[in-house]
Design goal:
Number of helices: 7
Shape: elongated
Strand order of the largest sheet: 4-10-9-7-6
Radius of gyration: 53 Å
Structural class: alpha+beta
Number of strands: 26
Helix content: 40-55%
């Protein structure tokens, strides 16, 4: 694994580090000579935000923020055998210098997309670099392409489809996914299926078969620890595993490469920056013999030595947090119900226990009926015995047993009623406790007197005392029944209040749900407005570039027109001179004709010789 450049606490770096996986040792080879096209020693510039692409036994360094800076992008080649650099002299339409771009290789061609120029302007242009002729060519595509961005990830599948994901624009991080078909040269936006990836920039991606692994990244506020998988065949997102907060994939500016070592595939993460620059290495291994699905499951289980435990612990933590949150919600609901019951039940802590069961009330009624029946029978027997005036000792013992039984029944009924009303407030409970003590004292008063059978006055006093106690118990029973009816009424009022509270809670939840939906709609509209603004900015940039191009063309045409007019003017002058010369020639011909005619007129006519 070759690491070139980057940034440390002291600034940009220009060294070359090589990690050997056989011995797992680092080697520094930055002291080697760098050969220029003229075979002169040359040194690569310190850089960051560049792209490093493998090409046979060479590694190609493309672009980046360099020191010293340059106007146009440069391509360097590192030979792994001779360990020397060479600068490729590029021809054609060389792109402007940039950083945060992506470069992928298709056979002997490099594909460059996006990035950020020296003026921090985001780009979305697409260029091709031919490694045979070292020529740059711009690529023109149709369809809705990605907006200008940098710090995104790109992958090339089967040398036919280019995928662009995430990155950052002028104002926000992105989570959109685009594909470019090189057969039709048409951009298309891919809809999100499966897991919904959060917006992120600065992430790293590696294509392994049909699975595109994307690790780390984040926005200005948060870094993401999960590693995503995009299945190219299923066109679906999923989560492989979530790393711990101390993992390298949470750092900014880390690197991720696919290493094939001893017939196995490894994802290797290196470096990055959290609070300080890191030089740590993390490895996730995958079984090469397994299919892509089993490879995904192995990755999700954490086949690597460093990620597996983190993945399982994170999943367990999610389950525990889910269960604890549900239990906390249930306990909170119970506490609210208990507090409402206590508030509306006039301070009764255990009012629901005796009031919920209807058999308790019916049992109390039957006990009261039994008590009145025994009282009536006891009164009749006592009256008959008094009218007869005969009191035998067995009859007195039977009468005493009956009175004791009635008194014990009264005491037991009083205790039952007191237990039922023991949940009243402190004043009523104190009065009830006092009533129970009085009943106990009454029981002693009834049981202590003994009859010697001498006179009937003792029996009348016992009978009167018994009637008095029975009347007091009946009055107390009536008071307790009134308190019970009031408790039932207060319980019904509490239930009504609780139902109204639940209804109001449901209405508030409905309103909250509607508000959340409205917020989601507003967010979608805001995202659409931002996307439209970015598209408008891109269109304005295109229009501006077209205007500049047209201005150049118009200036060129004006220059050509001026040259043509000058040539025409000179041609007209030449033509006028030629005409004057032709006229002069005509005049000369006319004069020559006149001279010839005059000469013909001067020649004498031939005469015949004169013979003598």
């Amino acid at each position: 694994m070759i690491v070139v450049g980057g940034e440390s606490g002291n600034g940009l770096l220009d060294d070359v580090q090589v990690l050997n996986f056989d011995h797992f040792t680092w080697t520094t080879i930055s002291s080697k000579l760098y050969l220029s096209p003229s075979s002169l020693p040359l040194k690569i510039p310190a850089c960051k935000g560049h792209s490093l692409v493998a090409w046979g036994k060479k590694a190609l360094l493309v672009g980046g923020k360099t020191d010293p800076a340059s106007d146009r992008i440069s391509v360097w080649a590192f030979d792994t055998e001779s360990e020397c650099w060479s600068l490729l002299e590029a021809k054609g339409d060389v792109p402007v210098s940039r950083s945060g771009h992506t470069v992928v290789r298709a056979s002997s061609v490099l594909i460059l997309f996006g990035g950020e120029d020296a003026k921090r302007r985001k780009l979305n242009d697409l260029h091709m670099f031919d490694l045979k002729s070292f020529t740059w060519l711009p690529l023109h595509c149709t369809g809705t392409g990605p907006s200008p961005r940098c710090n995104h990830v790109a992958a090339l599948y089967d040398d036919k489809m280019l995928y662009i994901f995430g990155g950052t624009s002028k104002s926000r991080s992105l989570n959109d996914l685009y594909s470019l078909d090189f057969e039709t040269m048409v951009w298309s936006k891919i809809k999100i299926r499966g897991f919904h990836p959060s917006p992120r920039a600065g992430c790293c991606g590696v294509l392994c078969g049909t699975k595109w692994y994307i690790a780390g990244g984040g926005s200005r506020k948060k870094r993401h620890s999960e590693t995503l998988i995009f299945d190219i065949l299923k066109v679906e997102w999923s989560v492989a595993f979530a790393s711990s907060p101390s993992s390298i994939t949470v750092n900014k500016g880390f690197s991720l490469v696919l290493v094939q070592h001893k017939e196995k595939d490894f994802l290797v993460a290196f470096g990055g920056l959290k609070k300080e620059p890191s030089n740590q290495v993390e490895v996730m291994g995958m079984d090469k013999n397994e299919s892509s699905m089993s490879r995904q499951s192995a990755a999700s289980k954490g086949a690597g030595p460093l990620f597996g435990k983190r993945s399982s612990s994170a999943a367990l933590a999610v389950q525990l947090s889910t269960g604890s949150s549900q239990r906390s919600v249930d306990s909170l609901a119970r506490q609210h119900l208990v507090s409402a019951d206590e508030h509306h039940g006039s301070g009764r802590k255990s009012l629901s226990e005796p009031l919920v069961d209807p058999n308790s009330v019916s049992g109390n009624v039957s006990l009261r009926k039994q008590f009145h029946a025994e009282e009536h029978s006891t009164n009749i027997k006592t009256a008959k015995s008094l009218e007869d005036g005969t009191f035998s000792s067995p009859a007195m013992e039977h009468k005493r047993n009956q009175s004791d039984t009635s008194t014990q029944t009264t005491i037991s009924i009083g205790k039952i009623i007191a237990e039922e009303t023991s949940c009243v407030d402190s004043d009523s409970s104190n009065s009830q406790n006092q009533g129970i003590v009085n009943r106990a004292g009454d029981n002693e008063d009834v049981a202590v007197p003994e009859c010697d059978g001498a006179t009937g006055g003792a029996y009348s006093s016992v009978y009167q005392l018994y009637e008095t106690k029975i009347a007091s118990v009946i009055r107390k029973n009536g008071n307790l029944e009134a308190q019970l009816a009031a408790a039932l009424a207060s319980r019904e009022g509490a239930e009504k209040n609780l139902s109204s509270v639940l209804k109001s809670k449901q209405e508030i939840e409905r309103k909250l749900t509607d508000t959340v939906r409205e917020m989601e709609l507003l967010r979608e509209k805001l995202a659409g407005v931002e996307l439209a603004q970015e598209e408008a900015n891109s269109l304005s940039n295109i229009v501006h570039s077209d205007n500049v191009r047209l201005e150049h063309d118009v200036a060129f045409l004006k220059a050509v027109l001026d040259d043509t007019q000058k040539e025409l003017h000179s041609t007209r002058g030449v033509l006028a001179g030629e005409r004057a010369r032709a006229f002069q020639l005509q005049v000369e011909v006319f004069h020559l004709k006149q001279r010839l005619q005059s000469m013909e007129n001067r020649v004498p006519t031939p005469r015949k010789p004169f013979n003598v």
